[in-house]
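Title: Prediction job returns without error message
Component: structure pipeline
Severity: low
Priority: P3
Assignee: unassigned

Description:
Job completed but the reporter wants confirmation the result is attached to the right record. Sequence as submitted:
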Amino acid sequence: MKRILSFSMWIVAMIIMASCSSSSSSATPGSALKGYVDDLKAGNYEKFVEGMALEEGLTEDQINEQKAMWVSLLKEKSSKEFEKRGGFESIEIISEEIAEDGNSAVVTFTQKFGDGSQKENKQTMVKRDGKWLMDMNK
């Protein structure tokens, strides 16, 4: 009986550790950025825009107006840019530099396109309410 109880406790501990490790891996600035870029690649512009840290202190109407503007701009411009480069293939995170306070980071990444070209970029990320967002104010 002790063996069964010990084994059961071990299984529970492994499940808890596995769930903690998987949720923490998606809580990095790089993994958040990768998720947002995957949304952009899939044409899910609204979800991509949800990952933007807009200026603080805006009213709900101003936030909705800015989000609508970003969605419209992305629909018009990003698909044309991706078409010129043979489509968007992938993103590779090169590095993450998290500030000492843990509330901002700079993610260096490479975008790979269908025509074989690559482009290295940096994106500032900010943490708001425990979630990494793309800083659009800098």
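Comment from assignee: result matches the submitted record. The first strand starts at residue 52 and ends at 53.
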